[in-house]
Amino acid sequence: MAVYVIAGYDIIDPKSFEDYPPGVVPLLQKHGAEILAADYESEPLEGRPRKVNVVLKFPSAEVARNWYNDPAYGPVKQIRLDTTQGGYIVMAKEFEAPA
Fold this sequence. Notes:
By secondary structure, the protein is an alpha+beta fold. Helix content is 35%, strand content 32%.
């Protein structure tokens, strides 16, 4: 069953953050992720959302965890952690309508 990884954060160091996208995209591709949305100026409709919001689709929870825990992602993830604030990442299962 597919899962969606949803992330949101505010960039506090734009210059250093520039290294994150070219580092993370090849790792997402390696793990079969599909980038469904990546918006740096998301429009809030309710609540206090983050400026950057990303939605990724993975074939399964196991594959998503393999990406997140990939040793090659560690240094790339640290770039995101060092250059953003207020971040979150959640994993949600694909919706299956009741029979």
